Amino acid sequence: MAAALGQPGDGNVLPLGFDDAPEYNDTTMVLDRPLSWKFMLVCSSVARVVHQIIRHDPRVPIWGESKMVIRKITDRRDWRVNDVVVVEVLTDHEDELFSKGMVELESGRMIHPMRGQLVICALAHRRSTQESVGSFLHVGDDLRVDLLTEGGACGAATDISTFMPDPMVKAIYRAHVAEPFLLEKDDDVPSYPPASNEKTLNLEGILDAKYDSIPPNLHHVGQLSSWATNHPQSSANSECEFPRKTVLIFGTSMSSGKTVAGTYLARAMRESVEHGNVFALKLTGAGQLHDIQRYGDCGATHVFDFVDAGLISTANIPPEQYMVAIARLLRRLCGSMNKQDACIIEIGSSPFEDYNGLYAAALIASVVKMSLVAASDAYALKGMVAVSAEYSRDHPEHEGARFFNNLFTSNDHKRPICVGPAANTRAGRDLVKNITGLEALNLALASHRETLANLLAELA
Fold it and tell me: Residue 261: which residues within 8 A CB-CB, separation 6 or more?
């Protein structure tokens, strides 16, 4: 294997930069970095998945003392979502040293990468309603790409909002990271065996190899529990028990206040669970570590999201593929939870966008005991209530659509409480009540947080 992959010092080993590299199209190479591996950046989403595969001290950069196996794939029809790739940072001008965009590192720290710096990221789609739209499927012959998120979603942007707060990092595709993706510093033997016969490293693929596969027809946690019970040889606990205090947060759109409400909720749960744990689980969106780190900052003891299932973004992922990946993640959590714990489940963006929110809802519908809906304004919330009813009527077979319609029409703890900007003032809360019939809480107010705590206490 070593001779085929190339050895340091021969013509098949790429130097520090790619400008003077030998032709390596469709050829597997060893990327040997004799100078400084710190020059290569690993985006947070890729790092988090690799951490599950190899033992790694988070204080030391991944691949920091190793060689990397790479392969340039010239036929873009062979590119797959969640493939791990190496890109080289570009700037608008040669004398411009730093990119205007930012990259999120494996620690969650944000930096402006340098021109010419190599970044490890993953191919993805993004369908943001307020920032950008793009996909690796739109990369052209010039191989120019954009980092669609700071966390490492890589593709070509096709639509960018004029109100997007920060520009994206621009780069050029250089290669895929191949399997075996890691060679030890002084060893030709891969530290992790190939997950399959595929040529390239795929985030979801390596988790498929590490964790037992599950059938694609699991539609909710109840079925998952039954399957795990009948497969005791699997790595999952035989029970899939969610806490009594399991609260769902969803919203009318991105930036509607979901994460802020979630941090208040995490703090309230931490105070209400005397000896248990607080789990925070984000099921849809585009992966950025600093988003979910807020839950840990405010009391959550265990924080996970779809990236831990091998999905750098849930946008435009086929529903069957999405549900299998998330069901695998839920199964891994099953043995860690008990009834005395608390759990926050967030559906990012909004359920009716192209992020699989309805399918996420179908998976967790049976365990939700209470819900919060973050709304930018009362009329957006009114629209969501109407869309839920219409979608449920037009697609009666869709469990996720029925779930949301049932939430809005229920008369128990599950009926959503409005939070977010729509609830900032008494006038806003009154409007929410008048046009939707829902109660609203401004969680920035101590009296409203006390109301939330009392509602959580009733779930015990």
Answer: 249, 372, 374, 419, 420, 443
The more confidently predicted of residues 54 and 297 is: 297
| Same domain membership, residue 255 and residue 191 | no
Q: Give a yes or no: residue 248 inside a domain.
A: yes
Q: Give the residue from 126, 4, 24 showing the smallest Cα distance to 72.
A: 24
Packed helices 44-53 and 203-210: angle between N→C axes, nearest 10 degrees: 20
Question: Is 86 in contact with 177 (CB distance < 8 Å)?
Answer: yes
**Comparing C-alpha atoms, which of 121, 123, 174, 180 is closest to residue 152?**
121
**Burial call 26-36: b when 16+ CB within 10 Å, e when fewer:** eebbbbbbeee
**Sign of the torsion angle spanned by Cα atoms 361, 364, 370, 372:** negative
> For residue 418, is it within any domain?
yes
Q: How do residues 375-385 score in pLDDT, each as one tens digit?
A: 999 999 999 99
Mean pLDDT of the chain: 80
**Looking at residues 169-187, what average pLDDT do you find?**
71
Domain's final residue, options 179, 210, 241: 210
The CATH number assigned to the domain holding 408 equals 3.40.50.300
Q: How far is CA 17 from CA 37, 44, 296, in A?
A: 12, 23, 38
Q: What is the mean pLDDT of residues 75-85?
A: 93
Q: For 65-76, b where at least 16 C-beta lie within 10 A, e where not — what string?
A: ebbbbbbbbeee
Query: In degrees rounded to 5, what are phi and psi of residue 83?
Result: -65, 140
* Residue carrying the six token digits 């229920």: 410
- Angle (CA) 220 223 225, round 5°: 110
Helix (H) or strand (E) holding 265: helix 258-272
Residues 317, 175 share a domain: no
Q: Which of 149, 182, 210 is the last residue of a domain?
A: 210
- Both tokens of residue 100? 């205007």
Q: Is residue 215 part of a domain?
A: no
The burial class, CB within 10 Å (0-12 / 13-18 / 19+), for 388 is buried
Q: How many CB atoms lie within 10 A of CB 177?
A: 24
Residues 80 and 227 occupy one common structural domain: no
* Rounded alpha-carbon distances, angstroms, from residue 46 to 68, 85, 104, 398: 15, 10, 11, 32
Angstrom distance (rounded) from CA 248 to CA 135: 29
Q: Give the Cα separation of 217 and 213 in Å (integer).
A: 12
Cα Rg for the chain, rounded, in angstroms? 23
pTM of the predicted structure, to 2 decimals: 0.83
